[in-house]
Queue: 4 jobs
Job 1
Amino acid sequence: MKPKKQDYKNIWKELGQDYKIHGPSSRHTRRILRKYLSLVDYSSIIDIGCGPGILLSTLDLKGKKFAGADLSESGIKFCKERWPKGNFRIIDIAKEAPKERYDVAVCSEVLEHIKDDLAAMKNLRKTCDNLVISVPAGKYSFSDHEMGHFRRYTKEDMISKLKKAGFKVVKCEYWGFPFYSPIYRFFLNNTKVKQRAGKVTIFKRIVSETLNIMFYLNIPNKGDRLFVLAR
């Protein structure tokens, strides 16, 4: 099944930011990314697929050189307005690497959207000394098609491709079972709740907070999300 075509240029105008800020899976993704970043000694960082900079806003950037790259004009515009001293550019990581090199790059929920993900990984190798990744894992589904995903990953797939790109995987773990998936995913797929759009109401905030707590109880290294640290 081919992925549904996405308008990445204007995607943040369509989605808004509420669901990314308050959504329990997004919050835990940022939490785990920060945990992986804590394993790296870095003074410079770039967020590949930064969107409007929600991950960067949760990091301690004091004294650090920081940057972001994205296909979204609206996302890059927002980042430039928020952080005038940051280096934010519209870049297709599958076709080019940023001109500057960084101690660490974060590439969260991006590679699954890229047809030639190996080309993107090779450009990431030119970009950073350390790489932190999050991607969907497990079985490809109709929701992946709707979100513009070309694939999901296994540990073996990811390690093999990163090796071809010149990386060595240091840490690679699944996450999400059972409360994110299948329980939360089943709820989203079988109700009229819109996961990726709209304002987060008070009711949704209460539900989100409850799920956020439950997600801490997921079984370690099991689930359909994959987090990676490579060097």
Job 2
Amino acid sequence: MSLGQIYARIWDCLAAAVREDSQPFKVMQAATIGLDGSPNVRTVLLRSANEVGNRLTFHTDLRSPKIAELTREPRIALVGCDPVHNLQVRIYGKTRILRDGQARIDAWRTSPDHDLIVYRTRLPPGTRMSHSGDAFDAAHGIPGPDEGLKHFGVVELRPARLDWLDLSENQRALFVRDGDSWTHSWIAP
């Protein structure tokens, strides 16, 4: 494949991951700089991919440690892999946290209910508990449809660098954002 074809394939793979849960780049690892200066990595689900707008999004609980980390240092790295085709994509860029506004509400309203249950917990992510069910307030019964919206946020990522590694072909390509366009080159795998 040419560098242009690889660039198109990256965005095609990301768009497919948004449309279908079974796609390999749906589940990505997100790395931030922890508040103590150490790396912090966790899994996120890709929710949108817009090549023209140079934007990716994922959802998160506004009470999560990653929000404090991204508020202090908005740079992030995502990595996804396709083990069947021996592909890896790394994405580097800066984030913006959508804590309110119509885009956030639209994301909430179009998300399946089973994805929203984690935002309805009474405890922030990572809080120690005695029992696995302690995060939910059993005294108040089943939460309403918009219960948890106050905890729901969208993280928008503007990619500045894309790194493609194809282990089947022993090829690696780097794409770097320069203004409104991308420069590209082959790099050693």
Job 3
Amino acid sequence: MGLKPKVAIYDFTDCEGCEVEIISLRERFLDLEKQVDIVDWRLGQERKSFDSAQDKYFDIALIEGAPITQDEIDTLKWLRENSQYVIALGACAALAGIPGIMDQEKRAGWYKKIYPSTSSGQVYKPKGIDALPLSAYVKVDFAIHGCPVNAGELERIFEELLAGKKPSYRPYSVCFDCKRAGNECRIINKKICLGPITQGGCQAICISGGSPCYGCFGPREEANVEGLKQALKKFADEEEIKRYFTMFYNKNEK
């Protein structure tokens, strides 16, 4: 990686909330921006026109969103071929996120309801494909998890990249964040929570706010998913447990 890494930021099917988190770094973002050359970012600049093949190569490609059209999949593969590091930005890119809640068959049914046949009898042919994480199509070097991403984690990972280090995942679960925040354990209180199998680093913001953990930070290494399910079955029915796992584990369950 050169002295001033070339960074591209792309987004596919998503809400663009993770890119907003980049901007929310404010002064720190301006400091980071001085250390990199952001050469292609739709939300932050006019569309880049590349003058040469060398211009098209990126040191870091940050990609938000799940690719659900062939054009998005083709762009993703092109970015993989022309980037040293491909980094999934947020739950939609890393886990398929909210778009991945719906299965492909149900998605096709909704397409027919939303886009019915025209008065001339012409049937709308949807471009949408099943919502899958980036890793279903290309090698992903690292994933910055969250829905949206945590600004502190975003800053930490950028600093590691700029220092020439391979980014690292937190070696603990959300339970550790909960302890630090002084939260009562939901599972001990017989409430469903995916914190024990989810990577830490989110600062337990959802649980601190009164909501359960749905696992948007992705499964921690060696997560005992089946063990958690068995523990939850002691006080919750299978249908309710399944609903929790559908949020972010629908396309990623181990």
Job 4
Amino acid sequence: MELIKKYFKDLSTKQVQQFEKLEELYKEWNLKINVISRKDINEIYLKHVLHSLAISKVINFKDNTSIIDVGTGGGFPGIPLAIMYPKVQFHLVDSIRKKILVVNEVSKSLKLENVRTSHSRAENLEGKYDFVISRAVTKMREFKKLIRGKFNSYSFNDLDNGIIYLKGGDLTIELLGINNKQILISDYYEEEFFETKKIVYVKS
């Protein structure tokens, strides 16, 4: 939790309390339904929460922005961002029912009123959003096919509507021919874990 306070100094008391509860909630649920690898659960703030919040270093979402988190798994990056942006609407989606069950319970325990969920594949959902966020679900070309037609046409944030994708490693071949912007997370965080991690932005 000290990691979160290190990089985010303006959190409200309520946000601090919500972030503090995450470890306990995920440890409890992970014993029943494995959504975070056993080796990572003790580093949840570094490898999951702080990683998710890197998106907020690149864009400060304006109130009433609508965001869909595709392949949210246990709720990353959607849950930490929903805590950070209580006036932004998040739709967390995963095709695996037990993962959405965990997301629902965590969200309910934190009293996150800006989160809704769907047990579904993204391509089967109706609706349009300002941003699609995700954490390394599949290769970008395939991902773009999954979320085709999901964007609102009008942009009102500092970044135009589009995909914000958390991914690591060398993406040269994967992103060949795709107009994108890559931001190194190590520009914002000093921990070694983030040395190869990137945020990829692709305009809708």
